[in-house]
Specification:
By secondary structure, the protein is α+β, with helices and mostly antiparallel strands. The protein is 59% helix and 17% strand. It has four helices and ten strands, in the order αββββββββββααα. Strands 1, 2, 3, 5, 8 and 10 form a six-stranded mixed beta sheet that branches. The radius of gyration is 62 Å and the shape is rod-shaped. Residues 190-231 form a coiled coil.
Length: 313
């Protein structure tokens, strides 16, 4: 989808650029410019000829437009229907150049050259000097603006049609290549998916077998753990029971020695001192504490083992 969008944008940009430059060139060729028309000389009498020159300005003002005539032409021999600046340029003998300046845009200037002899229109040379102006050498050379516009439209339409045809041809070729590539990719993907599916099925079967084995091993380990835990609890119960018995016997003998020492002068302090000295030498200070909690632990542990044996039974 993204590639098609990019391709569409690229095609539009290329078409727009080509159209812009084609229109620019066509406009330069066919859109109406200023037109200078040199007509045929008209004989008034045996020594007087009138040469009509028409200048139609369209785009912008015209300046420094020069027209060269054969023979010696003076400025007062040229008449204009609209006032404008006419200057004569010094040239070689038997050749005259006049310069026209200040021709405003969108106006029609009618110039008339009064000459003493017939001047061939093709012998007149127009020096444009950068002015966009079209030169016609007789009234017969004038072309209808409508025909020019139609010609411009036809050529522009042909260029559009050609561009659209070329772009469509390219897009169709590109589309065919993409369809072919997509078809190959889809077939490759389907084949790869089949192989992947088969591999997944095989992996799932292996995982199921492995999971079953793992579950059995876990059950076995759980039973072994429970058995070990039960053994440990029983051993702890046995050791605590023995320790409880030893503690009772130790307290009995300690109390017996204490009663004997109490019979001596200052026997109470001596009895405690002797018992502490013995405990310090044997490093058994912990036997002086309360051992009742060990007995409580024995009762709890015994109850746990009894309940565990019932559950296993």
């Amino acid at each position: 989808m993204r590639n098609r969008i990019v391709e569409g944008i690229l095609s539009a940009v290329i078409l727009g650029v080509i159209t812009f430059f084609s229109n620019l060139m066509l406009t330069d060729w066919f859109i109406e410019k200023s037109v200078l028309t040199i007509g045929d000389s008209v004989e008034i009498d045996n020594e007087t000829y009138l040469l009509p020159i028409t200048i139609n300005t369209f785009e912008k003002e015209i300046n420094n437009l020069r027209i060269g005539f054969p023979g010696d032409i003076k400025g007062n021999q040229i008449k204009a229907n609209i006032p404008l600046e006419i200057n004569k340029i010094e040239t070689e003998k038997n050749y005259s150049i006049i310069e026209l300046t200040g021709l405003s845009e969108l106006k029609s200037y009618q110039l008339t050259l009064i000459a003493k002899k017939y001047i061939e229109p093709n012998s007149i040379v127009v020096h444009k000097n950068g002015n966009k102006i079209k030169v016609n050498y007789s009234i017969n050379d004038l072309k209808s603006p409508i025909k020019e516009q139609i010609k411009f439209i036809v050529i522009n339409s042909l260029i559009y049609a050609g561009l659209i045809f070329l772009i469509s041809l390219y897009q169709e070729k590109r589309r065919s290549e993409l369809i072919k590539q997509n078809a190959e990719s889809i077939n490759s993907l389907i084949q790869g998916n089949k192989e992947s599916l088969n591999n997944l099925i095989e992996d799932r079967e292996r995982l199921q077998k492995s999971q079953e084995k793992t579950n059995k091993d876990l059950e076995k380990l759980d039973l072994e753990f429970k058995e070990i835990n039960s053994r440990h609890a029983k051993l702890r119960l046995l050791y605590n029971a023995k320790l409880n018995d030893y503690s009772k016997e130790l307290n009995f003998w300690r109390n017996t020695i204490r009663r004997i020492l109490y019979q001596l002068p200052d026997g109470k302090s001596k009895a405690e001192e002797v018992i502490k000295s013995v405990s310090s030498a044997l490093k058994t200070q912990q036997t002086h504490g309360n051992i009742q909690h060990d007995f409580e632990n024995l009762k709890i542990l015994s109850k746990y083992l009894s309940d565990n044996d019932k559950n296993e039974g």
